[in-house]
Design a protein that fits this description.
about 160 residues; alpha/beta; Rossmann fold; 4-stranded parallel sheet; 5 helices; globular
């Protein structure tokens, strides 16, 4: 019979760092609210959470690497919003932030949950930060909990 490993949504005792971009803060704060709500509802209390604010999305991977490498956190949740403008800046930034966060997860073995919106318009970002399309901050926090529990089960 095959072994099947799955994570659970039990956040009790999990130490989570939330890295939040201040740029587009009216969106990022909604994502943070959703992430905190998720963590609390799944048992991850305030004393097990650390919130780190960075200037913008570009700085998310830098702070996330420091946190993931510290051995103090079982997961890192990156939160921010990139909205397309009229220059190629959006494409470059979105690609590098995404690549950077993925590389941190691979390098450290610590789950890094992706709660960075990449949208065409501010309205789309608002929708994904709790208005019409759920809250991607919640989704990222939920993924973080599940991945921590999955790794614990895989490690025995």
């Amino acid at each position: 019979m095959s072994r099947i490993y799955e994570g659970s949504l039990d956040g009790r005792g999990i130490h989570v760092a939330l890295v939040v971009s201040r740029f587009n803060s009216f969106i990022a704060e909604r994502l943070l609210d959703g992430a905190i709500d998720c963590l609390e509802r799944h048992g991850c209390t305030a004393e097990h959470r650390t919130i780190v604010r960075v200037p913008g999305a570009w700085e998310l991977p830098q702070a996330a690497r420091r946190l993931a490498s510290s051995a103090r956190y079982q997961a890192v949740v990156a939160l921010g919003a990139l909205v397309r403008g009229e220059t190629p800046h959006f494409d470059l930034l979105a690609a590098e932030v995404t690549r950077g966060l993925g590389q941190i997860a691979r390098d450290t073995g610590v789950p890094v949950a992706y709660g960075v919106l990449t949208t065409e318009t501010v309205e789309q970002a608002i929708d994904r930060a709790g208005a019409k399309a759920g809250n991607k901050g919640w989704d990222a926090a939920q993924s973080a909990i599940e991945m921590v529990q999955l790794f614990r089960r895989m490690d025995g």
